[in-house]
Specification:
Blueprint lengths: L1 E4 L3 H14 L18 H8 L5 E2 L5 E4 L1
Antiparallel strand pairs: 1-3, 2-3
Length: 65
């Protein structure tokens, strides 16, 4: 298993700028709860799934098998 940043630098820059504005909360979500603090709970759970391969919700991170 490997987790890497999106290979599209524009996406990475946009999401990182959003994270700075929100204090580390997913810029794609309206709520500012611990569940949506980057790296979000949804993606941490997906990481645990050995069959999951793909991006986190905001497409900053990608999990490879």
């Amino acid at each position: 298993m490997k987790i890497r940043l999106n290979s599209n630098q524009q996406v990475v820059d946009t999401v990182k700028a959003g994270l700075e504005k929100t204090g580390g909360y997913c810029p794609c979500r309206r709520e500012r709860t611990e569940e949506f603090k980057c790296m979000c709970k949804e993606f941490r759970e997906q990481i645990k799934d050995p069959d999951f391969e793909g991006y986190c919700h905001c497409m900053l991170y990608y999990k490879e098998k």
